[in-house]
Amino acid sequence: MKKTLRKAMALFLSLGGTLLALYVGGYWLLFRPLRNLYVGYIEHIITWRLLLNSFIRIFLAATVFGSIWCVFDILAGFFRDEEEEN
Fold first, then answer.
1. pLDDT tens digits, 2-58
2. Residue 1 above 90 pLDDT?
């Protein structure tokens, strides 16, 4: 496989993994629960279920973010590591 194609695949996987991790870990598991807690507080409709659900999502956000990023970085590493040519 050509060197530029390997580098492009590694870059695409690294960038795609970072964006997917930001979307899932940052938006779905961190921002949305915080927003739901804020709206619930403002409208006085916070329930124990909403509170527990939000805290679990916020707690898991960093773990999910890191896991997604690591998997895509490992996949990109297969294309990033070049074989030595003699």
1. 888 999 999 999 999 999 999 999 999 999 999 999 999 999 999 999 999 999 999
2. no
Residue 45: strand, helix, or coil:
coil
DSSP 16-85: HHHHHHIIIIIIIIIIHHHHHHHHHHHHT---HHHHHHHHHHHHHHHHHHHHHHHHHHHHHHHHHSPPPP
pTM equals 0.83
- Reference 68, options 27, 38, 24; nearest CA is 24
| C-beta atoms surrounding 65 within 10 Å | 20
